Amino acid sequence: MTIKVTAILAAGAVAVGAAFVPNAADAAEMTIVSWGGAYSKSQLRAYHEPYMKKNPGVKIINDESSAEAVAKLRAMAEAKNTTWDVVDVVAADAIRLCDEGLAMPIDPAKHLAKAPDGTSAADDFGNLLVSECFIPQIVYSTTFGYRTNVKEWGGKEPTNVCDVFDTKNFPGKRSLEKRPINNVEWALLCDGVKPDDVYKVLGTPAGTDRALKKLGTIKDDVIWWSAGAETPQRLADGEIVMGSTYNGRLFSVIEEQKQPVKMLWDWQVFDLDGWIIPAGLSDERKKQALDYIMFATDTQRLADQAKYISYGPARKSSAPLVGKHADLGINMAPHMPTDPKNAKTTLLYNYEFWADNRDDIDAKFQAWLTR
User: Fold this and answer.
1) Cβ–Cβ under 8 Å, residues 346 and 272
2) Which of 95, 122, 243, 315 is deepest in the core (most CB within 10 A)?
3) CATH number for position 246
4) What is the pLDDT of residue 58?
């Protein structure tokens, strides 16, 4: 009998574990969960289709419920009826699910493929393994794009994130996300705080006030955004001269739409997306899920996903294997947030800090917005 694998997707080699062999007496159903759109399509082409070719008895069906993953997994656990087997989530949600006992620990030495040169998976992923239950697939970043044809700039172009705060040399409207995360980090960096001290300073009331004061210097020039598509559209329309958003959104407006826009990578903020396996699965379902994870997070597979979307593979060993976009035919490495030329100055989203401080800083930020 064939295995039916239902995949619910969101946002991956050399050594791969032995293929899962189903019990001949029973059909096995596996549910893998994600976010939809171009991201799910990239997973389908990089992971699912090759996995089904390797395992002809497996059929993968894509479902797109990751945005509701935390609530749904809680409800499934309470009902003692977990129907998902592999779920794509952002790292912050993975940490919450792990802390609540809703995601199972995954041992990199046992459950993940080594790099082609024999480097352990733990060393290959490095500090991106932010939870024992989470295996990252991609690194995406929040960074800035800017228009290249602003007459008032006199031929100059921004070269660092602090140019966002320089309205004298770079006049015009900016677009920033309507939340403190990332904005307050950039504000402190551009107010002279050393990168290693940003979260220490931000963790004090005076530090938050300092960040908001710096943001106040451009407040009148800011158009706030809530959805990632807003900044690229505003850049394309000429409504703004620069703005923050996700690097994949900027790739689209630059390379697919061919707008006069460039990327400003300086002090991009890294965030992660990847897989968890729900806790409480039967041994047979757990075996299936781990076999898929072994395959989909190996060096080649993570590099392959970069053929379809401009998010950096989470393994160090995958970066040299990133090639050309499957449809556009352009080299993808220069568009990856993890490319060494783009990652000279980066911040990794500090999950623990924001878990402890978000409510307080959010409240101060929203009050500041209304002043």
Assistant:
1) no
2) 315
3) 3.40.190.10
4) 80
